[in-house]
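hiii, so i know i said id send this last week but things got crazy w the move. better late than never?? heres the sequnce for the chain we talked about at the cafe, plus the structure i predicted for it. fair warning i was half asleep when i ran it
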Amino acid sequence: MSINRLTVIVILLTFVFRLAAQEVVKIGIIGLDTSHSPAFIKMLNYDNPLPEHRGFKIVAAYPYGSKKIASSAQRINGYVRDAIKNDVKIVNSIAELLQEVDCVMLETNDGNLHLEQAAEVIKSGKPLFVDKPVAANLTEAIAIFLLAKKYNVKFFSASPLRYSARNQEIIKGKYGKVLGADCYSPSTREPSHDDFAWYGIHGIELLFTVMGQGCKSVSRVSTDGTDLVVGVWADGRIGTYRGGRTGKQDFGGTAFCEKGTISAGGYEGNSELLTEILKFFKTKNIPFSENETLEIFTFMDASDESIRNDGKPVDMDKTFKKALKEATKVLNKKKLL
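okay and structure toks below
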């Protein structure tokens, strides 16, 4: 082989390798205070990821994350060590993170931090996934959506329960129209969040996954260990959510469909959710309407209002409009608009 031919081969191989390296989508994580962060890192950064997860790598992480909620803050040091072992660079700020990555997963467990953290990403123009909850309350959740709309940035938020195999079958109509549903999940509370925003949101998202949008009024009964929320949809269907804080808790539900009574899917891990996140990062196509996420938060906020009014039904539309006005005030106050 001549020297010239060898040189050409080397140049071509170098180009191919560089091109392959450029094709890897670089992801950054904000918040190493939740179990989702190490789970996503391991699924993407280990030697042989699933075929649908190839071409992506988590390259950097900003670890904070809650500094006030003990159950979250105490995880950070351990998750930082795990991230470093999996070839993730730990950075000192979100601004530094944004210089390293193409897309961002906002994983901070504390929803109180999400508005300001999301704002920094949104203003950069990078695609964003916001893990549950979008925010600690309806007002700040709306504020994040308003900010994303202003800067024309795509983002979405979802629970892994949405992507269980059975729930996807229900959504796609395998069992006919859903006539009603009863769903349940653990409902641990955190005083700094709306009652269901900390954990009950997973079961409520399961309810909206199978029922769809259109809830018009909400009423709630609550005891020390249990909450029962009843939603009435515009077409007369009824959906309920039961949140538990005593005994062994699980995720699941029942969908009452035209073709039978079907068990709604529970938690099956984070792999399918990750697949949807990566599709979104590639295509910028949001997998379901942002209005559904806002309706979930309105449902939770209205349920809190119902408790304050002795369990009386609360109108969803009025609840949303009130929070929308407050969201604009919050954005102006924080000088984020």
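btw The first helix runs from residue 3 to 23. thought thatd interest u
miss u guys!!
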